[in-house]
Amino acid sequence: MTAAAAAATEDDRALVRAALDGHREAFDELVRRHQRHVYQLCYRFAGNHEDASDFAQDVFIRAYKGLRSFKGQSAFSTWLYRIGVNVCLNQVASRNARRTFGFAHVDRIEAPAERADTVLLRDERATHVRAAIARLPKKQRAALILRIYHELPHDQIAEILGSSVGAVKANFFHALANLKNLLQGGS
Description:
Layout: H1 3-20, H2 24-46, H3 49-65, H4 76-98, H5 116-135, H6 138-149, H7 154-161, H8 165-183
Helix pairs in contact: 1-2, 2-3, 2-4, 3-4, 4-7, 5-8, 6-8, 7-8
């Protein structure tokens, strides 16, 4: 851990203590520090901005309500990611039960020089990949998203998911194999 990361972790712990002592602005600062990363995590699971915003809000509500359960054995960001993964997996499963999970909507500012057929093909591929990721088992999906999109190391993913490094590596390996199969038209 770099000196800056260690200082940020200690600052987060001090903010948690202050929030537990009743200083609401301390929790507001924790939200400001981590809202971008939590939103990005939620977006990778949700596939759209509206659901990602809802999921992120739920993550911070749960974190606020459960702040006393943060023991400081890991970084606050790791604890928050764990809440985020759980919220996302539960929300996506719940929404899937009510409707087919769609990834058709992708906000993007198109480069003016791009040809329409190139943009369409790229968007179709991206939609196909997101749909395939959504079909992965929960732990594989979480391991893949945290490793590929958030570039977290296996040990931190293991801490977030509450599993061993070996299990994370296995889930990631199986996620890649399953994703390849899904993208090649397998079942």
